[in-house]
């Protein structure tokens, strides 16, 4: 007897099995993607508690962000006199919008940048594409454009923004509010060019210039001196406590031959100061004797031993030689307006070297090889030599003692070393060793080597004299003055300026051009030194920018409007802002408001050429404004002033104020007449 087949039950069984297979496939897919979720039955108490805590933390993160926003609002009154960091402010607004729209994206970093084309607004939030990918990984698929739309729906009220729009796959275009621009310009005029510090205000130690005692400063020292001074100016302007250090070469075996030669040439040096006029010639003479006279060489080595043991007469000779060099260095620094540079030569760290080596030994970091004591930093094939086979110390030892002193004694939050790029590998080993010794961690102390390229001649080779010698810095500055004076006289400026004014302009332009030519190039690149290009008053040069500045400052004088009158008008506009309407007025205003963002970027990347580029952009924007917007209307026949547009004079005043602050940071001096 055959049984009747139950098709209904069989079909139901197949469906159940198919569902199980589908569930297994789904589980496998989730496991492969890394987003498998346990069912309630699979969870134990510990997992459930962890998930609850995660949700609590997400909730707390949202509220912390809101609290931060409220705190920022409360601090707005305190910071009302400071310029707004527009990118920073817009980033905060979009961070809040993203946090409100997508609470799981608490750690998502927002990207806001200036637009490349003003047809698309002023700024752009480019986060929708990456946020879409972030959400997809969390199992929430949403196209970038839809993400952008959702973000805009949650955008909080903000007086910076006039309008927003979405372009392409999800770019959010942002147009700044005209009222915000007007009020910001009034703020600059009334309260000055002041910006908020970026991050914690701390102790910044900058090591730059660093010439060698008994040797003249040459063109190679120019870049370190100019770049270091600029960065020191920047951090001071931002409210940091800056310590500028000159790590001169004032210790080592070369001083043995100098001291021995001094004793021979001026045996009465202890009682009577020797009249050394040319220290470079003195050095060459001692080096020649050291290379050719064996008995002199032996005495030189003995002088080194006496120097290290602090023999009074030898220390006296050493001080005399150092003092001669210091006077020579000061003449250069005074001409370049380099100030507050504290000398901390290698000798300063001599007493710290033994204890530094001993500490590293105790950590098990020092290895002995053929009588030398070495450190092998992690990941490096080359070692640091901390003790030579003869028991002497090295530059490596000195720099290790130096970085330790700057971290623990100077309490440095930021340590910057400004030297040529050729020393990059050396400092990399020093920094690695300091981190391994746990002297600092990158999270709490910023330590960076700022390397720079070579100065080249117009032939594209290393900058040398015709005889092949290194160019003396004093000769370079003298030639700059001569060429600048010739150019000024060629243009008849000696007929228009007093003798004192001509001298002031000559120095400001000559030294300013040398500094600006260096700073306007990317530090990592070599650059060609050309006085003809530096002194050209067209293009991105100091000659052009300094002239543009004096021209802007002269506009109010030509209108016969004094500064007191302008200040009075500016104060009356502080609540509603400057009354501007022309498109070129707004373009210039927006350019001025970029200043804090530019400084933020320079501070982060340590790239002064970005500030130079901004200064040139600002000057170019002003030229567009001035060519299209009359500040003063005159009778074409009599030349008498018919009308003065005071709002536009205020625009001139604000532009000049920002340009002047840029010049101060770059280390350039301005003049009122040129």
Describe the structure.
It is a single chain. The chain is 55% helix and 10% strand. It has helices at residues 7-33, 45-76, 86-101, 128-137, 144-153, 178-191, 219-237, 254-265, 279-292, 294-308, 312-335, 350-362, 395-408, 424-436, 473-490, 493-496, 499-519, 531-534, 542-558, 563-572, 583-593, 595-605, 609-628, 646-666; strands spanning 112-114, 123-125, 161-167, 171-176, 203-207, 241-246, 341-343, 366-369, 372-375, 384-387, 414-420, 446-452, 455-456, 527-528, 632-634, 641-644. The protein has a five-stranded parallel beta sheet with strand order 7-6-5-11-12, with helices on both faces. The protein has a four-stranded antiparallel beta sheet with strand order 1-2-4-3. The chain has a three-stranded antiparallel beta sheet with strand order 8-9-10. Helix 8 packs across helix 10, helix 9 packs across helix 10 (294-308) and helix 21 (583-593) packs antiparallel against helix 23.
Strand % is 5-15%
Given helix and strand content, the structural type is alpha/beta
The portion of residues assigned to helices is 40-55%
Characterize the main sheet: 5 strands, parallel
- Average pLDDT metric: 88
Strand order of the largest sheet: 7-6-5-11-12
Distance between the termini: 121 Å
The low-confidence runs, each spanning 5 or more residues with pLDDT under 50, are: 1-5, 71-78
Number of helices: 24
The radius of gyration over CA amounts to: 33 Å
Number of strands: 16
* Morphology call: flat
């Amino acid at each position: 007897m055959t049984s009747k087949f139950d098709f209904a039950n069989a079909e139901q069984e197949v469906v159940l099995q198919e569902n199980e297979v589908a569930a297994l496939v789904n589980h496998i897919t989730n496991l492969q993607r890394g987003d498998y979720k346990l069912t309630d039955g699979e969870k134990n108490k510990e997992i459930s508690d962890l998930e609850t805590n995660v949700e609590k933390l997400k909730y707390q993160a949202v509220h912390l962000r809101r609290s931060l926003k409220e705190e920022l609002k409360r601090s707005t009154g305190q910071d009302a006199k400071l310029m707004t960091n527009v990118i920073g402010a817009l980033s905060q607004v979009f961070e809040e919008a993203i946090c409100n729209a997508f609470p799981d994206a608490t750690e998502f970093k927002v990207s806001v940048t200036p637009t490349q084309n003003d047809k698309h607004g002023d700024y752009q939030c480019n986060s929708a594409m990456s946020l879409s990918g972030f959400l997809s990984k969390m199992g929430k698929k949403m196209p970038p454009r839809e993400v952008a739309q959702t973000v805009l729906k949650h955008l909080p009220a903000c007086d910076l923004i006039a309008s927003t729009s979405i372009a392409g796959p999800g770019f959010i275009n942002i147009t700044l509010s005209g009222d915000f621009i007007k009020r910001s310009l009034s703020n600059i005029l009334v309260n000055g060019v002041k910006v908020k510090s970026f991050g914690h205000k701390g102790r910044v130690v900058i090591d730059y210039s660093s010439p060698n005692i008994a040797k003249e400063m040459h063109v190679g020292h120019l870049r370190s001196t100019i770049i270091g001074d600029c960065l020191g100016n920047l951090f001071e302007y931002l409210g940091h406590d800056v310590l500028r250090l000159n790590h001169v070469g004032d210790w080592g075996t070369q001083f043995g031959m100098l001291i021995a030669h001094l004793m021979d040439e001026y045996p009465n040096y202890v009682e009577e100061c020797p009249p050394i006029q040319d220290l470079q010639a003195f050095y060459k003479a001692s080096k020649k004797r050291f290379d050719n006279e064996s008995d002199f060489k032996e005495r030189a080595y003995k002088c080194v031993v006496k120097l290290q043991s602090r023999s009074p007469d030898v220390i006296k000779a050493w001080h005399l030689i150092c003092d001669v060099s210091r006077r020579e260095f000061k003449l250069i620094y005074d001409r370049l307006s380099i100030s507050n540079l504290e000398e901390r030569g290698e000798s300063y760290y001599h007493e710290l070297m033994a204890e530094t080596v001993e500490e590293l030994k105790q950590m098990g970091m020092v290895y002995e090889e053929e009588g030398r004591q070495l450190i092998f930093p992690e990941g490096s094939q080359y070692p640091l030599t901390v003790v030579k086979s003869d028991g002497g110390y090295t530059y490596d030892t000195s720099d290790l003692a130096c970085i330790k002193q700057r971290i623990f004694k100077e309490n440095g939050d930021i340590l910057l070393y400004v030297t040529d790029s050729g020393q990059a590998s050396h400092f990399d080993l020093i920094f690695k060793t300091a981190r391994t010794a746990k002297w600092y961690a990158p999270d709490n102390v910023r330590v960076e080597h700022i390397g720079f390229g070579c100065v080249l001649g117009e032939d594209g080779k290393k900058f040398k004299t015709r005889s092949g010698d290194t160019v003396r810095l004093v000769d370079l500055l003298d030639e700059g003055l001569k060429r600048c004076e010739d150019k000024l006289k060629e243009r008849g400026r000696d007929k228009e300026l007093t003798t004192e004014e001509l001298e002031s302009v000559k120095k400001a332009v000559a030294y300013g051009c040398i500094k600006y030519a260096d700073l306007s190039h990317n530090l990592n690149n070599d650059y060609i030194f050309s006085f003809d290009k530096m002194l050209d008053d067209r293009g991105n040069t100091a000659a052009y920018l300094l002239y543009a500045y004096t021209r802007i400052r002269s506009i109010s004088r030509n209108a016969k409007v004094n500064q007191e009158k302008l200040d009075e008008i500016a104060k009356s506009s502080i609540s509603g802002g400057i009354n501007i309407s022309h498109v070129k007025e707004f373009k210039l205003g927006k350019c001025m408001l970029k200043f804090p963002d530019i400084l933020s970027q320079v501070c982060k990347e340590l790239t002064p050429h970005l500030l130079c580029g901004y200064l040139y952009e600002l000057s170019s924007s002003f030229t567009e404004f001035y060519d299209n917007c009359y500040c003063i209307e005159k009778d074409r026949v009599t030349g008498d002033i018919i009308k003065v547009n005071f709002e536009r004079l205020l625009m001139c005043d604000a532009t000049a104020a920002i340009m002047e602050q840029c010049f101060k940071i770059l280390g350039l001096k301005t003049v009122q007449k040129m």
